[in-house]
Structures are given as C-alpha cells and as structure tokens.
Amino acid sequence: MKLKHLIGVFACLLPGMLQAQELLSPNKELIMNFSLKEGGVPVYELSYKGKQVIKPSSLGLELYGEQEKVEFGSNVNRLTTTDPKTSLYDNFIIEKADTASHDETWHPVWGEESAIRNHYNELAVTLKQNGTNRRMIIRFRLFDDGLGFRYEFPQQQEMRYFIIKEERTQFAMVGDHTAWWIPGDYDTQEYDYTCSRLSEIRRLQSAAITDNLSQTSFSPTGVQTALQMKTDDGLYINLHEAALVNYACMHLNLNDAEMVFESWLTPDAMGAKGYMQTPCQSPWRTVIVSDDARDILASRITLNLNEPCKIEDTSWIRPMKYMGVWWEMITGKSDWSYTWDFPSVQLGVTDYSTAKPHGRHGATTENVKRYIDFASANGFDGLLVEGWNVGWEDWFGNSKDYVFDFVTPYPDFDLDEIRDYARSKGVRMIMHHETSSSIRNYERHLDKAYQFMVDNGYPALKSGYVGNIIPRGEHHYSQWIVNHYQHALEKAADYRLMVNAHEAVRPTGLCRTWPNLIGNESARGTEYQAFGGSKPNHTTVLPFTRLVGGPMDYTPGIFENDINKLNPNNHSWCNTTLVNQLSLYVTMASPLQMAADLPENYARFMDAFQFIKDVALDWDRSLYLEAEPGAYLTVARKEKGGARWFVGSTNGEQGREAHVDFSFLDKGKTYIATVYADAPDAHYKDNPQAYTITRYCVSSRSKLDQYTAPGGGMAVSIVEATPAEAKGLNRL
Amino acid sequence: MKLKHLIGVFACLLPGMLQAQELLSPNKELIMNFSLKEGGVPVYELSYKGKQVIKPSSLGLELYGEQEKVEFGSNVNRLTTTDPKTSLYDNFIIEKADTASHDETWHPVWGEESAIRNHYNELAVTLKQNGTNRRMIIRFRLFDDGLGFRYEFPQQQEMRYFIIKEERTQFAMVGDHTAWWIPGDYDTQEYDYTCSRLSEIRRLQSAAITDNLSQTSFSPTGVQTALQMKTDDGLYINLHEAALVNYACMHLNLNDAEMVFESWLTPDAMGAKGYMQTPCQSPWRTVIVSDDARDILASRITLNLNEPCKIEDTSWIRPMKYMGVWWEMITGKSDWSYTWDFPSVQLGVTDYSTAKPHGRHGATTENVKRYIDFASANGFDGLLVEGWNVGWEDWFGNSKDYVFDFVTPYPDFDLDEIRDYARSKGVRMIMHHETSSSIRNYERHLDKAYQFMVDNGYPALKSGYVGNIIPRGEHHYSQWIVNHYQHALEKAADYRLMVNAHEAVRPTGLCRTWPNLIGNESARGTEYQAFGGSKPNHTTVLPFTRLVGGPMDYTPGIFENDINKLNPNNHSWCNTTLVNQLSLYVTMASPLQMAADLPENYARFMDAFQFIKDVALDWDRSLYLEAEPGAYLTVARKEKGGARWFVGSTNGEQGREAHVDFSFLDKGKTYIATVYADAPDAHYKDNPQAYTITRYCVSSRSKLDQYTAPGGGMAVSIVEATPAEAKGLNRL
Questions:
Q1: CA distance A129 to A133
Q2: Which one of B63, B64, B75 would you mutate to disrupt binding with A, by most A Cβ within 10 Å of its Cβ?
Q3: Euclidean distance between CA atoms B212 and A75, whole angstroms
C-alpha cells in the first residue's frame, strides 16, 4: 500500500474552509464535492467531464434510540434512557479532512486480468456531531472510472454499540434515466431484468416480480444493485457496493418524484438493519460512470475497494471447468430424490435401505460414471453431482430444520466407487451442499462436511440456499445471514476448499480477499431456461449488473433448446442460439465454468462443443471491444500464461453485426481463428442450432464483421500458427 | 417395558360407545373421562377421590393455514391453497381407543430415589378429523398421583408438516384456587413467587414482573409452570409438562372469568409456535393431584413420562459438590472482567496482553488457587471459575454476536498452572460457558470448547444464557432455542460431559433420558439474595414448582447475610438464617450442590460448615415428612449406597416447630443425630447467624420437635453408631 499525503494537489485547508471539500480523480475527469448543508447534514455530489452524475445527495444513518441500560450484579436495574440519539445524519461539523493518493498494481489469484491497477485520490472527512460528540468518518475514493465511499465508525466511548434503523445514503439522479433493474427483494435476485425509465419502475414492478421459492418485496420502487443506468446524453452510471462484510445488503429505493435513490438495507426478523460495534465501517458504495459502456465492464472499482487477499498460500485455488449431474434434474428428466415411499423423511430415522426407488433418481452410480467418462474424455476438471445425499424427498417448502446431513449417500450412490473411479479418470468431484436455507443445520454440519471433502479429495463445493431462511424471519441478505456466508467461506479456506454459493447474497468483490470464492449464482441463472425461459437479452445485461460484483456460476452450454425433448411435461424453451451459449464462456468471465447440458446433447454437436473444451478459464488481459447494456457485448481475452485468445460476442434480441478488430494480437505473427457463428437464418426461437464453424488466418491487422442472430452470438478461438498451418485458410 | 392390553379392566368397547372413554388410576382414586362434545371437540375431565379436579376441558391445536405450495424444477409455480385447515381441535370422530397398563421399576443414574416405580393405566384415543381425514392420537396416562397426556401426530399423507399457531389445551379449574405463581414470560423465570387467588393474578401481575436482563411478558393472566395450586377443600393441584423436546415451552394463560387455564406456547420471531413434521408429538401435559401436599413432592410423574436413559455408559456421570469463584462477582466484591482500558472489546483484535488490569478481576491464578486449597481441604469435588476467559468487558446488553470464544484465558489466569494445581489437589474444574445468549456463536465454538474440556480434564460445565437471544426475535423458551439446549446437551454426552445450564428452559424431567443434565437454574436462584434479596419463603415454594421438572443449581450456602460486608456499594441482605441455608442441601435435592459463599465466610463458621461437608448428593430413599407450599417442608433422605440419613427442614416466614419421626431408621439400631438448629432468637432479618448444634442419640422410635425461625430451618445428619459412641448424648 502506497498511501502518501497529497501536498499541492489540494489547496491547503484552512479551518474556515472545512465546510466544503473537492476531490478530483487522477485524470481530473471526475470531481466529487463534499459539504455540510444547513443543519450539519453531510452532502456529496459527483460530476464527470463537467456533467453532473450525482446531484447533491445526503449521507448518514438513522439509529434506533431508546436503548435500555441494564446493570448486572448487585441490584438489577433497568434504566430507560433516550440515548443514543437516533440521528447520525445531521448536526455534524467537519473536524478534519485528510487527503491521500494511492497507485499500485496488484495481481489477483484469478480473474479477467493478471494485473489490476488500483489508482485513486482519497478524501477522509472526520465529522463530529454536536450534542453527542460522536465521530464518524466518511471516506471517499475517486478513481478515473468512478467513486467509492463508505462510513467509518471509530472506536469511541460515545458510540460503543449501535443499531441501524436505516442507512440514509442518497444517490440523486439528474434525470429520468433508463435503467436495467430487478425488483428489490430481501430473498432473491432471480428475476429477469426490466429495462425502463426510472419513472416507470413503479408501474412495472409487480409484473417484474415473478414467482420464486423465497421472495420478500418491500417497496414498489425498490431495486437491487448493481443497478445499470444510462442517461439521455449517453452517460452510463452503475450503482453497487463493495466489500459487504458484517453488514446488511443494500437495496435502492427510488423517490420517483425527485429521482433520488436512497439506500434500503435488508432487515432482520425484528426489522433492525445492523448491529454494530465500533470500530467498524459500512461497505463501500460505488458509482461507476463513463460515457462509454465498455468502461463499465472494464472497471475494477469493486475489486479495488476490497481488502487484499487474506489467504497466504493460494496454490490450491485453481479455476475449474466442470460438468454436472444437474441439468437432467433441473429439466425434470430425473429427480434429486430417491423414493416416493414416505410422506416425509427424517434423517437417521427413515430407512432408505428398504425403500423402493422410484427409478427417476439422477445420482446413481451408473449415471454418475457415465458423466465421469464423458467429462474425462473431454478434458474437464470436475464433476458436480446433486441429489446424491439423503433428504431430497421433502427438502424445501416445509421449513424443515434438519433437512440434510451433507454426508450420507443414497443406497444407489456408491460413494467410494465413484470417488475412486473419478480419481482414476482424472476428474475431481465437486461436492453439493444444498442447505435448504436451514442455516443452523448447515453450520452444525460444516466441519464434518468440509472434512468429508478433504478426506475424499473434493476440491470445491457448490452450496445452495433455496427457500426461506431458518432462523425464520431472517432474510437471505440480512446482516446475520451475510455473516453466515462469510463464516462458511472463511472456514472453507481453512480446509483449502473452493466455494460456489448459490442463492447467497450477491458478490461485492470479496473474491479479491477470499479468492476461494470462485463462484456465486445470485442472479437468474441458466436454470430458468428450463423454468419457462429467460429473456433473450438476459446475458447482455448481466455483465453490467450482476457481474460487477464478481463471477457468476451461470452454468451455460445448453445445446438442446427444446426442454420438451428431455421431459415431456416441461414445455420450456431455451431462448438463445447454440452459439450464444458458446459466447458466454468468454463474455461471462468466471474461473468456474460449467458445460451444463447432457453428454448426449453434446455428442450431437461435437464440433461446436470443441469451443467449450478449448476455452480458457483464467486471463492475462481482457478487452471490451463493443458493448451496450441489454443489446450486445464483444469481449476478447488472452489466456493466462498462454498465447491463445478467445473472443465472445453475446447478442440481444435484435440481429446485428459484431465487429472484431484483431489489433490486440502480436504484430507480425500469424494466428488461426476458429469462428463459431450463427448461421444467417439462425434465431433463438425457431432455429437456434444453426451455426457455422470457419477457420481463418488472422493477424493484428485483421478485422471481422460477423452477423449475430437474435438471441445469438459468436465465439472465436485464436491460436498462434505457422504460415504453413494457416495455408489455404481465408485471410481476414 | 411391560405393556399389556387390559382385558376386563375396561368394558369391551362397542362402536357406539366410542364417544366417551373412562380411565381409572391403578388405585382407582383418579378417574379421567374423555369424550367428544358437540362439533367433535375433544374434551377431558379429571376427578380425585370423587372430587372434580379438572372440569370438562377442550383439547386440540390451532394451525396456520394458507400454506403456499411452490413447485421446484420445470416451471416455478406458486399455488396459494387454503389447505391445511387451521383447526385441529374440532370435527373429530373417535376412530379407535386403545387401553393398556404399565408397571415397572427403573433405576435412575442419580436422584431422590434409587428405584422409581412407573405405574399407570393408559388410554390412547385415535381421532380422525372429518373433512381433512387427518389423524391425531391423544394419549392419557393415569397414575395414582396424577395425569399425563400428550398429542401424537402419526406420519400421514394428510399431515406431513404443519405449523402451530397455538396449542389449545385447557385446564378448567373448579374454583378460585390459591396459587403460587410467577408471571408468564418468554425469556425469564427469575421471579419471586406470588401467592394469591387465581382471580387476583391480573391485579398483581405487574408488580410481580420485576426487572430482568431479558424478559418478555405476554398476558396479564399468564403464568408459568410448574404451577402449584391449592383448593379451598384441601386439594393440591400441580400443572406442568414433561419431556419438552423439539417443541415450544408451555405457559398457561388464565381466563379469569371462567377460571380456565389454556396453554400458551412460546413463539418464535414470526409469532409461530411450532414447526412440526409427522410423526411427532407434543410434550406431556401433567396434572399432579393429592389431598396431601407431600405427595406433590413425592410424585415421579415428570420423570416417568420421559424416555429411558439414552446414554449407554453412564459411569462418567457423577454427582458433584463444588465451590466457585462466583459469589464475589455476584455481590460485586470483584469483577468478571479484567480491564477498563477499552470502550468495547473485539475477540482476536483487542490486545489484552498490554491492557492495564483494573485490579478487581476475580479469576486470577492466585485467587483461584486459594479456592482450590479451601475446596480440597474440605473434600469438595469441583471448582467453578467464572470470568476466566476473555470478553467480559462488554458481555451483555449489546446484542453482540461474537462475544466469547470460550477457550482463551485472561493474562492473569494461568490455565495450565491452575489445571495442574487442581489436579494435584484432587479438585475437578467446572468450566464456564456463558453464551450471553448468542446461540450461533456458542454452537460455532461448541466442539472446540468441549474438546478443551476433554483435553484439560473438566468433567462438567455451567452454561449461561444471560440477555436477549441471538438470533434476534427468538426467545429463551421457543422451539428453536429449546432445540439448541438439547443439541448442546446431547453433544456434551458424546464428549462425556455433564451440563448445568443456567437461564435455559425449565427442566421437564429430561434428566431421566439424559442424566448428564445434572443441573439447571431456570428459576430465581440464590444470586438474587445479592440482587436485593428474595422472599424468605422462596425455597418453600420451589420444591412444589421449579423442582417438579428436575434439580436446580440453586447455589445455596450463604453464611454472610450482609452483602454490604463484601461490597460497600451493595446493600442487599440474604433473607434466610444460616441454618435455612444448610437445610437446602436436603430439601432442594440435586446431584450438583454448591457451597456458594466465600472461603473466609465459611472459616468463621466451620462447625456449621461441617454439615455442607457431610451431606450426601445422591439418594436411595427420600421421605417427605411434612410439607405445605410456601410455608415449610421437612424431608429425610438416605444416602445412596450408604447408611447415613440427612434431614432438612426449610421454613417460610412464620416461626414454627418442625417435626421429625425417626421411624424411617433401621429398627434396633443406634444412631447419632447432629441437629443444626436456629437459635430461639434467630430471625432471617436481624439475627440470621444464631444457631445451635446438638448431638443426640436416636433410634427408630425417636421423635424431634424443633423450632425453626422465620426464614429459618433445620438440618440433621444421622450416622449409625455403637452404643459406646452414643454414650452421654441426650436421647430423643
């Protein structure tokens, strides 16, 4: 860390000037102004290239008051006091303003780039509240691509513990922007995105709230972060948070008369939003801004605002390409469960050994070995198996506490045989820890389940939090449950295990600090293509929203669009072309990539499947060639420690031409580019499997204009070649 | 288990007779009638020797309805249904009525008797609900000393899972009885008892609710069990529950217009009172009844209704007499904490090694060794030390999650040295696990804390649940937290550890099944004598109420009444005579008995202290010689596996003569009885330390009439002697 006090960059601050502070980004294109308005209310505003991005917006928190002071020991007394004062948003004076600058380059364990520059100017304003003498620091970090700020609460006698009633951070918008939003919800993020004006959110909200197994909406104008917006004059603004640790996840609630967003934290069962002990701080609130949509994708603000890696030896953290006994259950072709013999099951009581199998169980030894064979033959690192452990007969919707023990297999799943078979085939098993959101039960079994993985050589786990949280009344995104995910993650690091948490809180860049967090769901994943289908442009929004916080286990690779062919009772349709699926391995960067479809579906398209086999998982460089939220993005990435490049172009609902300028290639070298493209008549709805595969000879002077179909895309793999190898290929 | 179908005891049941059932106790003095009243509502009534005890009272439960059925997999659908029907209290028909009889004698690991007879007649009524076809069994067991009944929910497709809105079990009283009650409360039982007519509860309730660190009152006529009552014609009726497992603790709410109690379960944060999966059952609801108060004390219904011991090898479960570095903190003479250096502490962050000790810390190596010396010199088994582990600076009242780690000592507590010193002196250390009610934090550390005990040779632990429960919104007595206590207890058995849980749910005879539960607080303990004082008759009520469920770690033995002498700022007074304190070691039977006062206070009264050194902890026989709730009780017990007898007489607020008939002694043998008695001018308020110690020669023909002072008592130890040894002693 190279923090140094800025001398000369900012004017020397005289006491009388402490009412207002200006902070410039390193390139001076962003300007943040902080001041106290009447009544001692902290206010900030933000501009970019002279355009206002955030109008003057209030900062602060509202606390619970009326704390009772109870004495223990000699005489138990209950003294009702009105201290602390509930307002932590006014009556402040600026006690101090510290400035600093920071410029370093750090190297993530995995990611879109092997080197990340963290360059910002910082302003830390120490506020003191009249009357209470409480101190709070608001720390701003202004990067060239946006702003981060957080509240810091130093240890002090005047504020030892406090309970947050609400955080009152405002983001005042300049106009009625276009936004790609999902409804604010304490328990799910698995919604399709709606694109609308801010003023239309209220009208469109109820239609946007589609059914989910656990959901808690809170306001007709509540939305989730990362929220991507676009102004009428072409600014892209993205609001999110970074380093969500020991705090409730933030939603945004829109005052649509004024176009002012205000933070809305996830409450606990009592309605309280945070239990704090000083010293402590809030997560960072982030505003990424640019007039070029590609800069949103290239921004590393979320990672940069997180703490450096806390795992000393990271050698065991390795990206994985995996398959799974999963899609056949998601589609309803087979089941997680084993039997229909019992009205309900009780672990340790129900005798599975004598139960009649219903014959639809997916995780049988035989079927798993079939997947292992295919995964091994095609060079995959891992295999996920779901539904292998007892308890799936009644695993959700019953508020069942002791729902899984995480380690006991069904009678038809031969754990040892499968483990040994996978090992002999070079495939590593990914363990499945579905918790059914019974958090206490999971924590009670955590050590045993992790030790099981160590004992059996499982390097990674997929955890799941389907259904309503137990303890009842808590939410998926409340502080206490956020702490659980963190606990499970840190303990996994102790066991040297990688975690891919589904239905957990959305990521906020924590994978910088804990790179064993190799994946999260936390959005509407591919499974919804089997639950009725997602919008064709869904994956052109996710990189601007969900992925701002970290990689997603999106589980792409669906080659058979007609789910009916897998399950006659399921009439879902996967709303993408086959090539669109290929493109996602590049555009949706993740160190964990699944090929989600069934081996038999891949067997029909082995030429296209080759791209999934080839594509890298970890990157030295990433270039965002073209992008527009909800419409398209084209990304080129160079594999880490290698010479290959991969390009993905993911298209939305309108057919268009994708453009690739190959100038990123080493000058003077020859490459072969294999282009997987939608056929001219391809369409996500009625002709999704129409694709072409063409090999070209390319160099740094090449250009490609390639049609991408509605719901389609393009995927390109580029390898260095000798002129002889490239002979006969068309040049681009 | 000797269950056999009764043939001839009950008339053969014809289908038409199924509307009403009669059940007789083995001695035929109790009669229970069960019937369905209009609307198919189950009703029971109870009589004793021809007197009505319980008037016709309804049975059943109210459920939450409107369950949403959500499908997972292909198409997520949310179907709102109105199933299940919310009533599980009407529209029943009797499908079957099974009767049985049971008579066995079993042997507890420890207790008031070494052999317990379990003798009852049983009626199990299978009810089927019209419309829903749901089945519920109500099982009645009628003993000579009372009734137990419970609800059983067989596994069935019609009722796989259900959520309890309220249990609707009525206990309709015949009149406006006298009751010894404490206010109904979801979070504490630490109240003084109020004796009043049932009709006066409403008026007296608010005064009865004294301050506590965590308390949640729910109704002006709510009371807790065990509830002891007395009718105007001399019947003693006791209402409680047995075998509280995976269910919310029951309170009683009085309809004081009709004098009908109805069950009132402890809710969770959502207000729900139980999450049930069939097959399952409620705890037993118990009605102990007699015209002799002594029979209430002698009743073993609560134990008999629990399951037999589930611990195979119980050799490691041994009663303990112990001292503690505790009373000096309770009185405020010293502190649990170590330093005043920090506004608050964070485990793993706060550096205690450089902190300045405030000099009031009780658990210092030196002080602990002083207690070890005294405990060892006087033959005590164990020593409890509180405040030895880091975190006590801000341990309650802050809703602090990570409050203790349970294993890290303060700098001035040399763990190894103390452990080795205690071992060398033959004293076993009792570990202290104060959780501050941060349940998840305790469960996260449970294995490590238990392993620590195994590693260091600690055989028993005192756990504590001071303050409001985390997860916030849950209560000390809600189902989910009841499950925690059970989890901690069963896991302790795995580690071969004994548990003494304070502020946990009141016991319900579970020590039969899990005899490593050697103690509970769950009532107003001796500590309140240092928190302003308890009523002088408090311990003449507890045996009729709190102790019906199991032993209490009451921590008696306070010899110095004037707390001011320990702490100039504490003006509390212990409202008993010194001899009353001695009597409690007999009248308040427990396998865990503390001598709670300081060594220096015992040193001043070593002749009286001799009784505490002598008294046994475990018993072959117990005889209840005289008893009246709230007034007095005299109990004689024969030590287990030995020939000594001990008599305790605990008196209430009025001076009286205690009467002991020594006919329980072996005929023809000579004994020496050492009688510890209040001096004639003794009084709990102004002359509590005035006592006499007299040795008598006694035989089975002896009788003793001994004055016991207000707040006083008597203690007698009786050992067999040769005539020569008894020579010169007065004969009784």
A1: 5
A2: B75
A3: 10
DSSP letters for A469-535: -BSBTB-TTSHHHHHHHHHHHHHHHHTT-EEEEESSPPP-SGGGT-TTEEEE--S--GGGGGTT---
The 3-state DSSP class for residue B279 equals coil
Residues forming beta bridges with residue A432, ordered by sequence position? A462
CA nearest A325: which of A559, A612, A598? A598
Question: How many of the other CB atoms lie within 10 Å of CB of B474?
Answer: 27
Q: Active-site residue B62, yes or no?
A: no
Chain B CB contacts of A272 under 8 Å are 472
Counting as low any pLDDT under 70, the low residues of chain B are 1-18, 66-84
Contact B74 A563 (CB under 8 A): yes
- Looking at residue B70, what is its pLDDT? 55
Residue B24 amino acid letter: L
Among the partner-chain residues A68, A400, A440, the one whose CB lies closest to the CB of B443 is A440
Contact A384, A594 (CB under 8 A): yes
The two tokens of residue B631 are: 């007034």
Using the Cβ of B155 and the Cβ atoms of chain A, whether some distance falls under 8 Å is answered with yes
Question: Which among A121, A154, A149 has a CA at the least distance from the CA of A136?
Answer: A154
Q: What is the DSSP string of A13-45?
A: PPGGGTTEEEEE-TTS-EEEEEEEETTTEEEEE
Contact A562, B67 (CB under 8 A): no
B297: left (phi over 0), alpha (psi -120 to 50) or beta: alpha
Task: Tally helices (H) and strands (E) across chain B.
Answer: 13, 41
Q: How many helices (H) and strands (E) does chain A have?
A: 13, 40
Chain A residues touching B342 at Cβ < 8 A: 155
Contacts 24+ apart (CB under 8 A), B207-213: B208/B181, B208/B182, B208/B183, B209/B183, B209/B185, B210/A76, B211/A70, B211/A76, B211/A77, B211/A78, B212/A76, B212/B187, B212/B188, B213/A70, B213/A72, B213/A76, B213/B188, B213/B396, B213/B397, B213/B466, B213/B467
B531 in A contact zone (CB under 8 Å): yes
Is the separation of the CB atoms in B691 and B608 below 8 Å?
Answer: yes
- Maximum distance among all alpha carbons in chain A? 94
**Tens digit of each residue's pLDDT (9 = 90 or more) over A53-111:** 999 999 999 999 755 555 555 444 444 444 558 999 999 999 999 999 999 999 999 99
Alpha-carbon span B197 to A335, nearest angstrom: 62
Q: How many CB atoms lie within 10 A of CB A367?
A: 17
pLDDT of residue B85: 80
Q: Do A75 and B570 touch (CB under 8 A)?
A: yes
CA gap B387, B452 in Å, rounded:
17
Transcribe A592-654 into DSSP letters. EEEE-S-HHHHHTTHHHHHHHHH--SSEEEEEEEEEETTTEEEEEEEETTSS-EEEEEEE-SS
* 3-class DSSP string for B644-690: CEEEEEEECCCCEEEEEEHHHCCCCCCEEEEEEEECCCCECCCECCC
Amino acid identity, position B544: F
Contact between A139 and A123 under an 8 Å Cβ cutoff? The reply is yes
Please list the ranges in chain A whose pLDDT falls under 50.
1-17, 74-82
Distance of residue B397 Cα from the nearest chain A Cα, in angstroms: 7
pTM across the whole model? 0.95
Residues of chain B neighbouring A277 (CB-CB closer than 8 A): 344, 346, 398, 400
How many other CB atoms are there within 10 angstroms of residue B455's CB atom?
A: 10
End-to-end CA distance of chain B: 45
- By Cβ distance, the residue of B343, B471, B530 closest to A155 is B343
- Whether the CB of B344 is below 8 Å from some CB of chain A: the reply is yes
The Cα B579–Cα B598 span in angstroms is 17
The pLDDT value given to residue B20: 87
